[in-house]
Amino acid sequence: MPEALLEAVALSRRFGGLVAVDAVDFSVRAGAIHGLIGPNGAGKTTLLNLIAAALPASGGALRFRGEDITRWGPARRARAGIRRTFQNLKLFSEMTALQNASLGLHAGTRAGIFAALASTPGQRREEREIAHGARRALEFVGLAAQADVVAAKLPYGHRRLLEIARAIAAQPALLLLDEPAAGLNHTEAANLAGLIGRIQALGITVVLVEHHMDVVMTVCDTITVLDYGRKLAQGTPEEIQRSPEVIEAYLGSAHALA
Amino acid sequence: MYLADLFAAGLAIGCVYSLVALGFAMIIRATGIIHFAQGELLMLGSMSALSTLWLLPTLPAVLVLVCGMIASGVLAVAMEFLVYRPLRLRRVPLMNVITATVGMSILCINAARIVWGSEPLRYPELFSTSTYRFFGVVVSPQLVWIMVFGVVLMGLLQLFLKRTRTGLVMQAVAQDAEVAQLMGANLTRMMVYTFAIAGMMAGAAGVMFGSLFFSFFEMGFVLGIKGFVAATLGGLGSLAGAMLGGIVFGLIETFSAVYVSSAYKDAIGMVLLIAILLFLPSGLVGLWKARS
Amino acid sequence: MESALLRRIITGVVLAALFLLPVFEPHQFFLHMLSLVAISATVALGLQLLLGFSGQLSIGQAAFYGIGAYASGLLSTKLGLPFPLAFFAAGLIAAVTSLLMVPITRLTGAYLAVATLGFSILVYLVLKNEEWLTGGSFGLMGIPRASFFGYVLAKPAHAYLLCVSVAALVYFALLRLERSRFGRAINAIRQNEDAARACGVQVTLLKSQCFVIAAFVAGLAGSLYAHQVRYLAPTDFTFWKSVEILIMVVIGGMGSLFGAVLGAAVVVLLPEALREVGDYRMLVFGAILMAVMLFGESGIAGFLGQCLKPFSKR
Description:
Order of helices and strands of chain A: EEEHEEHEHHHHEHEHEEHH
Strand order of the largest sheet of chain C: 1-2
Structural class of chain A: alpha/beta
CATH class of chain C: Mainly Alpha
Number of strands of chain C: 2
Oligomer: heterotrimer
Strand content of chain A: 15-25%
Largest sheet of chain A: 6 strands, mixed
Helix content of chain C: over 70%
Shape of chain A: globular
């Protein structure tokens, strides 16, 4: 039985009277690309935000590498190896692409205020390593040429790639992608699918919330379908495409499966 | 009965705070800005009304109030037009807008100091010197009139917002500016109205406070903060909360000044403010909503 | 000429000029004013870290400035502590007091600003009311001049050198911080707090650290102030002082350490240069504050930067 990197047990999130995520059991196998789909309002992004600790859970538990991380905040989870991108891009707009990617490596270093005041050799080496790692991340996503461009000036497609570069710079164990293909055209989406495949090849496990069915069906090993906050189905892309419940849930939607 | 005196005083000052708090709440709902210069609108209304009273000493109390309200209303609209609107149109970050309101506050205070001097100014007697008797309790007419004016103004505001077309449109804009615009609301005009009303409320509060104590150029500073404390106590962004918070805070402050310490009277508000921001950010209204 | 080399040369020249100034212009009053500029610059530099770098609008720095001033004054008058100890103690006491603010760093934007304002009013009330400790409204008198191991800095030139040295040290320390990993992290916090968290940055911790550093620096400046003017009154440390410090940072340029120094010079020296403006001083500053917000927040430093652009190679 391949081990679960991430395990959600009866995870719930309530907003007042509204139940956005309803006791969802969900487990992600290490090394897999795990898709999370569902009609609008199904709770996919909320579930992702619960995993990233952007929202506190109203109930249930979350385990990462066997450890209970339910109470952990977002920074702690990030340092433990769970990184994410945001649906509506949260870049550091005044910084260059390279600087943005460097922030992705912030957590690994140990230099604090006092070390910053004295320029120790250890600190200088860390700076070089950070710069090196940031460049590698930019090269990986194809933004090496834009390293010194200010993030606010990058075109939309590049900004999406930059968020990914920042998230993978530290080679996290788990990468959460929140609608990475939103607003991308056909070619860009195909490139993104290729990129996600290459990320998997690095050994990074990926959880992907996405509406773009081409990307989802091409890239994912497993797909979980949510509807009204509850888990509707889980399986391989083929199984999901054939599932009657899933088809019914999507009936009338503009996204045609297969 | 000493307690009754305190109670009346607390209610009266509470009305003053409520009016200032309403202004804060309205502006925050419509723009997200904490209007640091709100207290200065109070002060300018107070001083303008006083100047009017110097010119026309026989003016009845109600008209003095109205003059003060008109003065601050006009000034508030001027502020919106000259400073806040350009800032909004340039999509300046919120931090800068807040800093600008601080700048506005400084400008107003120092302009007032130049025009009216730095000495506190007494209001001449607006009301008869005889006292009223309620259920055997002696109350000064000052306090009664303030409460009456306060309640009437707040009542009129509620009527305006809930029963008139403009009022309803203003509420719509406060809830969701984009959608309201799609429905045909004139955003600019609603902003002007919002500031005008917030200004008038503050001006009324200024006249009330002035008639109760005195006016001076720095009065807006502390009263502004206290109005903000009241709005936060009630629940920032809620008009009902602003009114409730004002009364509650007025009572808390008046009683604490007597039973705890009078030197640190202002400190009570500050401690309360920090405590609410940290522990009960949604205020009393939020507490009420969570219960039901 | 390389931009970095040019900057080093300019820095060297400016420093040399500052330190040699007393030799060429020993006029007492002038040196006293410049000492005040250096002291104000020190506080402003702390606020720049807080506001310009980490994006936290604090309008209560005067509280720490006052705590540092009174701490140093009281320690040297009542306990006879030598200046160097009183100086560092002032910074430490201000820093420790700022730990009370740590819960407040959770707040953002205007809410944080109002909370810092409330805090500074509380401090002012304590300074005013606790007569047994601070002398209340009567003030604290007879604070000795700064001295090192018995050598009293009686000459204005020596006091001036002390103030400028402290300001320079703080400046370069903060410059180091700005360019370090810590500096990048707090800059990231300012630009996008959520994203910073998602990168593993301990946002609340770093924001609090900024508060403590700014308070420490303000406390040191307060100590210098106390031993410079040698008489303290609570009215020196009201909200208006906090506003003055804010104006220094804003006029000089948000985010620029050099700007904070320039802003301090403008705010302290301008009223002296334009005696007639005196009364209208704050009026003018209020207007300037609004104008800078309207027309671009890079202030004087930004303006100078634009002027110098053609001269430096990127």
